[in-house]
Amino acid sequence: MASTTAATRGYTASKDDLQKRLRRIEGQVRGIQGMVDDDRWCPDILQQIAAIKAALDKVALGLAEGHVEHCMAAGSDDPKRRQEMTHELMQALGRLV
What we know:
Layout lengths: L14 H23 L4 H31 L6 H18 L1
């Protein structure tokens, strides 16, 4: 019989905070759209883009930290599986940077 319990992820405990951050970033992106519509000065738009990138980086690092603490540290005791998990994380971090 299939389990109906949702998987617990490293960010599950802080999901509400994560959603708030992502909604704030979404609002910032909409703000940039408005700046472009209003023909705002390019350096002002670039400054806002930098702020969004920094906010997304912070979200990404928090997710990575949660993954390491929850999934990897408390994960499988199988050395091969741990090696696979490390490889997966490193690939994801490589795409991030």
